[in-house]
Design a protein that fits this description.
Blueprint: E1 13-22, H1 24-27, E2 31-42, E3 48-49, H2 52-67, H3 75-86, H4 90-97, H5 101-109, H6 116-135, H7 143-154, E4 168-171
Helix pairs in contact: 2-3, 3-6, 4-5, 6-7
Length: 178
């Protein structure tokens, strides 16, 4: 007999189909993932959560959306790639890119935009990490990301990031198949 999953409030988590998921608490990125999205909802407080495989699929869909932007990345997008996709500190990312940590901090505070070269390199590092992650993830297929690689890395980045970061709206149909 399996025990029902419980919420931090003590309520029981039950399977639910969600219409919309706020990305900020999950990935630190302003926006939503629009459903239907299978998840779990607490029968007491109403809080929604997700199983690990679903979180991975959601992260990949959001990362593809960020990486596919036809302009220089914003501060929020650079921070998302560093933290959620790469799982690195500012210092470790700086070391990996052979730049100063203060440069990464300046990007993320919005004090200095990424250069075209740093934008390209950050996208490449993030793509490489996603490809490795999905390759080693128990055989999960990520054909869509593989198809995106050439387009993402060869697109010219001539547009500056917007002054006001946009709110992402990522349809659940963009998530890779389970």
């Amino acid at each position: 007999m399996t025990r029902a999953a419980t919420c931090s409030c003590g309520g029981r988590l039950k399977r639910a189909t969600l219409d919309e998921v706020d990305l900020a608490p999950l990935f630190g990125l302003r926006g939503v993932l629009t459903g239907p999205i299978p998840g779990l909802r607490c029968d007491t407080c109403g809080e929604a959560t997700f199983e690990g495989a679903m979180l991975e699929r959601m992260l990949i869909a959001v990362a593809r959306s960020v990486l596919s932007q036809p302009r220089i990345l914003t501060a929020e997008e650079a921070r998302f790639l560093r933290k959620a996709v790469l799982g690195l500190t500012q210092e470790r990312l700086a070391k990996r890119m052979a730049i100063h940590a203060i440069t990464v901090a300046d990007w993320e505070r919005g004090e200095r935009p990424l250069s075209k070269e740093h934008d390209y390199e950050l996208r490449g590092v993030a793509l490489s990490s996603l490809m490795e992650w999905t390759r080693s993830g128990g055989g999960r297929k990520l054909d869509a990301l593989g198809e995106d690689v050439a387009r993402i890395l060869t697109a010219p980045r001539t547009l500056a990031p917007p002054r006001r970061p946009k709110r992402y709206v990522v349809p659940a149909s963009e998530m890779p198949a389970a």
